[in-house]
Amino acid sequence: MRSLIPTPRPRDESRRDEGAVLVWVGLMLTVLLGLGAVVIDAGALYTERRQLQNGADAGALAVARDLAAGNAIDEHSMADTYADANANDGASNIDQVCGSGPGLEPCPAPPAGADGVTGYVQVSTSTAEPDGGDQVEFLFAPILDAANVGRTVDATAVAAWGPTAATATFPFTFSVCEFEHFGGSIAGGTVPSGTNFIYSHKSPPEVAGWDCGINPNSGSDFPGGFGFLDNEYCVAEVTNGWVGGDTGNVMKGCTAADLQELRGQTVAIPLYDQTQGTGSNAEFHIVGFAGFTFHGYKLPPDEWANDGPPWQEQGSNWICPDTTGDSGTCIYGEFTEVAVDGEIGSGNNYGSSSISMIG
Fold first, then answer.
1. Maximum Cα–Cα distance for the chain, whole Å?
2. Cβ neighbours for 238, distance < 8 A, ≥ 6 positions apart
3. Which DSSP state fits 302?
4. Average pLDDT along the chain
5. In Å, what is the CA distance from 259 to each residue of 290, 314, 340?
6. Cα four-point dihedral sign 206, 210, 214, 216
7. How far is CA 248 from the centre of its chain?
8. Is the pTM for the entire model greater than 0.70?
9. How far apart are the C-alpha atoms of 101 and 119, rounded to whole Å?
10. Chain mean position to CA 58
11. Burial status of residue 35 (CB atoms within 10 A of its CB: 0-12, 13-18, 19 or more)
C-alpha cells in the first residue's frame, strides 16, 4: 500500500531551490531595468533630439529668410527664439550661429552643398533644461550605473539662399527692360527705387529715354510691360526658361477675390527678356525673379487704385494714368527684395531669393 504521508524533503535541497529562484528574479529585474532604460531613457533622448532638430531647422530658415530679404537682425536671438519655441519645455541652447552672409561669423568648415549659393547659415542647438541643466535626465539607467544620470543631445541645421530659379507665384510676368528702365541693375545688385506704373496692352506714357519697344502687331508692350501666365486657380508654377502665357486683357484663372489677396503683398514676380507667339499661344522667356509690392492695380475682373493720386481721375473712378476709359490695364507698386520658398538657381538675382535646407 502506498503511504499517504509525504516524505520530508532534505533541508539543504529546499534552500538550493530558493536560491535558484532568487537568481532568476535578479536576472529578470536586470533585464526589465535594461529594457526600461532602452525604452524610456532612449526614447527621451530621441524625443529631445527631434525637438532640437526641429528648432535648429526653424531657426536656420528664419535667419536665412531675413538675411536673404536684406533685413538687419540679431541672428543669434532669432535662432534662439525659434529653437525654444520647438522645445516642449521651452528651453534649448544655441551653441553656434555661423555662415556666409551679412553679420554672420564664418563657420570653421563650410557645410556640404554650400557651393554656388549666395549665402548660408548654420545653427547648432543642444539640450537645455528649465532648471539650468544641460542633460536629458535618465530614469532607469542610474539604477544600473550610478554614474549614468543623463546625456546632452545636440543638432545642427543649414539653410541657404540664392537666386530664385523656380517657385509658385501669382501668374504675372514683368519685363527685364522695364526693371532696368526704372533703375534696376544686375551688375550693381540693386532694385528699382520708388513706386512705378507698369502697363500692359497699352503704350507706356511718353518718357524721355524710354527704350522698351512696342509690339506693332498687337499693341502690347514688347518686351516692356507685363503679361499673364498660364495658371491653375491663379497660381503659376514658374521656372527659368520658356513658359506659356496669355497676352489677353483679361487675367484668366483669377477671380476678384484672388486679386484682392495681392493688396499690399510682396511676391516674387518672374521677369522675361523675350516673347514668342501671340494670344493664348504666347510664351515668355523667364530669366529670373524680382520682388514686387503691390500698391494698386487695374486688372479685370478687379481694380484697386488706392482711391486717389497718382491715379488719374475719370468721373467717379480712378484709372491708369495716360489711358482712357476702361481699356487701360496697369499695376502700381515698387520693386523690392523678397525671400520665398523655391528652387535655388545660379542665374540672375533681380531681388528674389529662394530659401532651401542643405543640411
1. 133
2. 166, 167, 168, 169, 173, 229, 270, 286, 289
3. E
4. 79
5. 19, 22, 19
6. positive
7. 32
8. yes
9. 5
10. 10
11. exposed
Question: Are the beta carbons of 168 and 237 closer than 8 angstroms?
Answer: yes
Q: What percent of the chain is predicted at pLDDT more than 70? A: 74
pLDDT tens digits, one per residue of 196-208:
888 775 555 555 5
Cell of 46: 530621441
Beta strands, E only, the chain? 93-100, 119-126, 136-137, 150-151, 154-169, 172-175, 196-200, 226-229, 236-239, 241-246, 266-276, 283-299, 302-304, 312-314, 317-319, 329-336, 338-341, 343-344, 352-357
CA-to-CA distance for 169 and 3, rounded, in angstroms? 97
- Check residue 219 and give its pLDDT: 45
User: H helices then E strands: how many in the chain?
Assistant: 6, 19
HSE toward the beta carbon, residue 258, CA cutoff 13 A: 18
Q: Tell which residue, 284, 298, 294, has the closest CA to residue 231.
A: 284
Name the pLDDT band for 216 (thresholds 50, 70, 90). very low
Grid cell digits, residue 25 = 528574479
Which grid coordinates belong to 125? 542647438
The stretch 210-214 carries a mean pLDDT of 61
Q: Specify whether the CB–CB gap between 354 and 342 falls below 8 A.
A: yes
- The answer to whether 259 and 250 have CB atoms below 8 angstroms apart is no
Query: Contact 33/318 with Cβ under 8 angstroms?
Result: no
Most confident of 122-136, 145-159, 243-257, 271-285: 122-136
Nearest Cα to Cα of residue 331 among 246, 224, 219, 222: 224
Residue 11 burial (CB count, 10 A): 7
How far CA 106 is from CA of 75, 93, 95, 96, in Å, comes to 13, 20, 14, 11
Specify the range with the lowest mean pLDDT, choosing from 12-26, 63-77, 181-195, 263-277.
12-26
- Take residue 339 and report the three cell numbers written for it: 525671400
Kindly give the pairing relationship between strand 312-314 and strand 317-319. antiparallel
Nine-digit cell at 312?
A: 488719374
